[in-house]
């Protein structure tokens, strides 16, 4: 595959995996958790580097997942102590992210790990770090990891589809049916952390947040069926990734920033044109209904 093809494939994998996880985030009304975890994983990555002094390896994934779960636990603990939900998210994620920034500034030194890289990522570097697979050959490490994460996400969603659906729409009913709501919550937080970490190094925190929230929010405007929503959200994520790359090439600007911008365009078009919730359809439908009512 060509250099450009690897970049597009990696970005598409980010869009697909984040888009599918984002559906559950939107339905559970936990969109800001994406922002929180995408920032606090920086602390886990920095601590993993300080322990191992290596910038690559699965220890980075482990450290970041632990940081993501710690974020979820701390937010839940503050909420159980009476702190408002949005306030607890803001307090935890800004504090842990700040600790990560301070550790980078004071302890990391000259390693290729900085705040700008954490926020924006650098997807153009992805094809240069490769691993060799039997019968396949050299493949970018980030692409391999994201492929594995996508497989985990798809299997988890399909295997526990009923549980995700019930716990997302009605946790009380799920508990009455014997579904372990707390276990499902932390399983979801683990999936979210793994997905965030896998995309973090390649595309940065800003694109991760955009891909987790915006495609799912756009898909929510088009359909009320959960299975269709998963497909639409993943498709919107892939389409935004591809469109964003060509926008960046045209304008000679940040690829991750352009992909995040493309998700906003997708949402804007959905907000205007979706048949049920779109602004245009409402503008057309409401006068038609008023006219039909008056004729009666």
TrEMBL record:
GO terms for cellular component: ATP-binding cassette (ABC) transporter complex. It is found in: Cell membrane. It is a multi-pass membrane protein. SUPFAM superfamilies: ABC transporter involved in vitamin B12 uptake, BtuC. It comes from the Bacteria. The keyword Amino-acid biosynthesis does not apply. The keyword Ligase does not apply. Keywords: Cell membrane, Membrane, Transmembrane, Transmembrane helix, Transport. One of its GO terms (biological process) is transmembrane transport. The chain crosses the membrane at residues 6-27, 34-52, 58-78, 90-109, 142-161, 173-196, 202-222, 229-248, 254-273. Pfam families: ABC-3. Belongs to the ABC-3 integral membrane protein family. PANTHER family: ABC-TRANSPORTER METAL-BINDING PROTEIN (PTHR30477), METAL TRANSPORT SYSTEM MEMBRANE PROTEIN CT_070-RELATED (PTHR30477:SF8). This is Manganese transport system membrane protein MntD. It comes from Paenibacillus albidus.
């Amino acid at each position: 595959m060509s250099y450009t093809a690897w970049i597009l494939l990696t970005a598409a994998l980010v869009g697909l995996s984040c888009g599918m996880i984002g559906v559950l985030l939107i339905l559970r009304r936990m969109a800001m958790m994406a922002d929180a975890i995408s920032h606090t994983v920086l602390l886990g990555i920095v601590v993993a580097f300080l322990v191992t002094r290596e910038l690559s390896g699965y220890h980075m994934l482990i450290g970041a997942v632990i940081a993501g779960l710690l974020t979820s636990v701390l937010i839940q603990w503050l909420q159980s102590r009476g702190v408002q939900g949005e306030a607890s998210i803001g307090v935890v994620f800004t504090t842990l992210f700040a600790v990560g920034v301070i550790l980078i500034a004071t302890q990391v030194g000259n390693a290729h790990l900085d705040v700008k890289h954490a926020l924006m990522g650098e997807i153009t570097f992805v094809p240069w770090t490769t691993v060799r697979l039997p019968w396949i050959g050299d493949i970018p490490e980030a692409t391999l990891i994201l492929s594995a994460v996508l497989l985990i996400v798809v299997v988890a969603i399909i295997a526990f589809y009923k549980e995700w659906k019930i716990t997302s729409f009605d946790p009380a009913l799920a508990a009455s049916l014997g579904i372990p709501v707390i276990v499902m919550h932390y399983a979801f937080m683990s999936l979210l952390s793994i997905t965030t970490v896998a995309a973090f190094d390649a595309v940065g925190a800003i694109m991760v947040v955009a891909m987790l929230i915006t495609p799912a929010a756009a898909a929510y405007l088009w359909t009320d069926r959960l299975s269709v929503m998963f497909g639409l959200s993943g498709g919107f994520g892939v389409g935004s990734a591809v469109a964003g790359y060509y926008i960046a090439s045209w304008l000679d600007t940040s690829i991750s920033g352009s992909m995040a911008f493309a998700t906003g365009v997708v949402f804007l078009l959905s907000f205007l044109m979706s048949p049920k919730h779109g602004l245009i359809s409402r503008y057309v439908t409401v006068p038609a209904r008023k006219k039909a009512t008056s004729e009666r």
